[in-house]
Amino acid sequence: MTHPHDVVVVGAGLAGLVTTAELLRAGRRVLLLDAEPPAGLGGQAWWSFGGLFLVDSPEQRRLGVRDSAELALADWLGSAAFADDGSDRWGRAWAEAFVEFAAGGMRSWLHGQGVRWFPLVQWAERGGYLADGHGNSVPRFHVTWGTGPAVLEPFVRTLLDGHRDGLVEVRFRHRVTALTTTDGRVTGVRGDVLAPDRAARGVPSSRAVLRPFEVDAPAVVVATGGIGAAHDLVRATWPVAAGPLPARLLSGVPDHVDGSGIAAARAAGAHVAHAGRMWHYPEGVAHHSPVWTAHGIRILPGPSSLWLDADGRRLPAPLFPGFDSLGTLTHLTSHGHDHSWFVLDRTILGKELALSGSEQNPDLTGRDLRLLLQRVRAGAVGPVEAFAQRSPEFVTATTPVGLAAGMNALTGTDRIDPDSLAATIAARDAQVATGLGKDLQVVATATARRYVVDRAVRVAPPHRLLDPEHGPLYAVRLSVLTRKTLGGLATDLEGRVLRPDGEVLPGLWAVGEAAGFGGGGVHGHRALEGTFLGGCLFTGRTTGRALAAG
Predict the structure, then answer these.
(1) Considering the entire predicted model, what is its pTM?
(2) Smallest Cα–Cα separation from 534: which of 546, 548, 524, 523?
(3) Which domain of life is it from (predicted)?
(4) 234 contacts 257 by C-beta, under 8 angstroms
(5) Per-residue pLDDT tens for 488-500?
């Protein structure tokens, strides 16, 4: 049978666009399907901060950071904690290949397409454990100049060129609900054509059905993302041993990120690996101007804020801001806490807190140097301070007693004891006042300032929270923010989807988050940040090239 398309790609997010771009560059004919309106082209990546995990980059070397592929892989394996029973075989293989790519061809490949990076490399997921444990040993989080939209640009450009040349057809408002199979092979897709909708990017769109559709193709690529917006599904698959997720969850992804593509592939015979592995953030705050349902923003913290549980107790070491996201989340859920708190002062607020996302960083997203320089001017109001002025999640007071009263008023409880809060802050301040101290967070914060970027723009000089020169005090209520699915469709190193018996399911490929960013779980149990966009890039590139060569 002659097909009008060589490949059907389901999902027009970053992974789907990269796969499509590689196929178009090889002259293949592609049908790209997406349930959302045209405004949603690029999916979740458009909303991202644009951070990429790069290893031994020129940006790192200019800052005196000594990195290597060997060190990065050791960090990855220490964080992933892959099982030895064979269940992580493909995830580990993808991890090894990805680290090699991050230390080798990724930067030059993107640079050749016009992508550039902010020169100050950030240090995410610092870990705080022993040398072979979780965390990045050195800064590796490279923020793309232009954030998420700039990561998408070269692949959108290739899509437009392919459309002009008649190689690609894009059908928006086409929701795939099932894969069609013939004699054990995936041979196409079917679903619903949804009613036209002019919803803006990220805004929930209509699910009114106009008619069914069906498409045959020799190859289908699932690029539909994870399950982050399907809160009932998130709760159902969250590990029981980690304690229940709270009733109130924020979404870090738009409503359409519902796991439907993974479910359709499973129904067609695909193996879904490690469904219970997820990467949600404990540092979410509700968006004061939400775009999608339960819209939340993640705070990207420096290391100085005190992190307290819902009862006002400090979290144990090394669960400090920016050190171990998943460890902190599981500590909170296993103890039954539905929220937590950052306690800080105005100096720390202005220096250390950032907000994740393209729309929260107009200077970086707009590539506006003048606006960017305003962040570091004395007295300037940065994005976080502006957000704090509009958000009810930020409480401010001049004394610990007043702060406790505001925290309790926000939650409608009396869980924060004012005397205990005052004692906690005073004990921490006494450690700072020594100039040395035994408090591990105080020590870690001082150590962070040895890194030139942290000292210049990311970590406040050590000081007492109760010093009025740095006031007033702030407390920020933090909620769980759903984000990434670490498990997914099991794939081999060409992106071919596997069946539960480990054999290839003919005709089906998967990329990006739908594939657990490679192999059904490239991250294992924990991620190192900058590896989600990078995983979409790598799986899309690898799978697109494998399909083009086949």
Answers:
(1) 0.97
(2) 523
(3) Bacteria
(4) no
(5) 999 999 999 999 9
